[in-house]
């Protein structure tokens, strides 16, 4: 019983340390939000300042905006790891190294949800999108998509950290792997916004990725972190 | 008919010639590496 | 004297390669004869069906090569023997080449049959994603310093890339596919003359894969030797 308590306490300490370091590294997430909002603006202008988009288009643009918000944040985190040794403190934690991943995933998913929500809010306003038909489903789909995406981003950013040209390599590592997640997120939000499509299979895709993200780092994160 | 054959020859050519080109390329890379190994070994001796 | 010794070391390799390549060339000629001349034309597609005897084996060999690369990457992470890493990168490179060939021959088939070089068919889309996954693998590999680190990080990505393939495949399968299914759980859907040509193609290109893998693997080992020697020369001169 005491052991379990200790283990939880260590993990919570890891989460706190990571959250503090994320909060300090402001440039990453401020730049991320700016990029995301700018993307929505550019998309609106490129579509000739349209008054009203079909739901499927709006959702596609929304998720591209979310990617534009998240990728700079992951790159900034990765640069922080490589150049300022942000990971080295966490390596001292008396826990299996894979727990570093789970702690980071929790914290980064939180930050990702907040920043992505800012972009979603802006795109509702700028692109004149009416409120979704099923607001609860919309929120659930949005949060699940962002959580799974940030798990992938956290893992792959760690891999890209040691690369000489991580800014170029990271998007290429991320996008093919994340494509089904993006697809599923778009489909689920389209369903929530306009009651259109079959949501069941796309929940299964997100679930499959979630399970992979829970299991794989346990096997693979330690070799990814080795020096 | 002739048009069909054009597509067929293009596909067969791409696969066979592409594989051949890749084999030759590998062989050239291998030969160059062997020469490099011989030169480096001479330098070390 | 030294040159003579180096030559003597090299000669058996040339002989071995030429013998294997010669035997394979004969098999490839036989396959070309079967695919282009001996097999019957199809009733709807005519001679265009013959593209399949190149396209399908390329796609299967590519998937097999990626599977070998995945196993080798897993073995590297387990055993930490650089030989496994050499095998993983060799097989992945050949897999990428065969994926490229499968995409090109697929487009050459699609243009006359479907009227478009590219369609958003699940099979096509997933294959293109697969191509990018492994292109990413090579870019990552190329930008990593240090033998051990390069092997370790690319092995981790190699495992992820391969595990992603079934997920990618399943996720887009829910779109309707117009891609013909040659082999399904009910067996092969074609007359015996055509099935023979297909099997012959598969065996031929598998043999080509085996030869290429051997050559590529030896090359990778040679490259490692060069890296070690360069380090030694640098240490001696500095």
From TrEMBL, chain B:
Protein name (Swiss-Prot/TrEMBL): CcmD family protein
Entry superkingdom: Bacteria
Keyword field: Membrane, Transmembrane, Transmembrane helix
Transmembrane segments: 6-27
UniProtKB/TrEMBL annotation, chain C:
InterPro entries: Cyt_c_assembly, Cyt_c_biogenesis_CcmC, Cyt_c_biogenesis_CcsA/CcmC
GO cellular component: plasma membrane
Pfam families in alphabetical order: Cytochrom_C_asm
Topology of the protein relative to the lipid bilayer: Multi-pass membrane protein
Cleavable signal peptide: none
Span of domain Cytochrome c assembly protein: 32-178
Keywords per UniProt: Cytochrome c-type biogenesis, Membrane, Transmembrane, Transmembrane helix
Domain of life: Bacteria
BP GO terms, sorted: cytochrome complex assembly
GO molecular function: heme binding; heme transmembrane transporter activity
Residue ranges the record marks as coiled coil: none
Entry's transmembrane regions: 54-78, 90-110, 122-140, 152-177, 197-215
Localisation: Membrane
Similarity comment: Belongs to the CcmC/CycZ/HelC family.
Name of this protein: Heme exporter protein C
Species of provenance: Alicyclobacillus cellulosilyticus
